[in-house]
Structures are given as C-alpha cells and as structure tokens.
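Hi P.,

Sorry for the delay on this. The queue was packed all week, but I finally got your sequence through. Input first:
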Amino acid sequence: MTPKEKRKDIFENTPEIGDIIVYNPAKYKGLVFGKCVGFSKSSGLPLLEVDESFGYVGQKNTDGTHSPKTEFVIYKNK
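Then the structure:
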C-alpha cells in the first residue's frame, strides 16, 4: 500500500510533525488539541498525542494516538 498524501486542514495548510492541531471529535462537545506525531498511511490523516488529563478519552488508534475524523485546523506550527 502506498502512503496517501497528507490531509490538509480547513485553510489548505499541510500539517507537519510537531504541529499543534485542533479539532472537534464526533460525539464530543468541545474542542480537542494534540501534537502531530505522524500520519496515517491509509488516509493521510495526522496522528495526534492528546493529553487526556483534560477529560477527552475518545477512540484511539492501535498505537495509542488519536486521528481527527472531522475537519481540523493547525493551531500552531512547530
């Protein structure tokens, strides 16, 4: 399987490893942010480390990261 192109945010910016990404997960009221630590090979979505001490414990990937299934925005570049 060939890796997909990195998914862009709502402003057409391409995320990079180390960027802070903000999104609103499905079935969760509020925003979640996390640090980009990689990209999904199948979908090109960013893989995020999310600090769960803020209360969000949504669905994780097998490696323990989170992926925004909805639109996202890059809050802060590295």
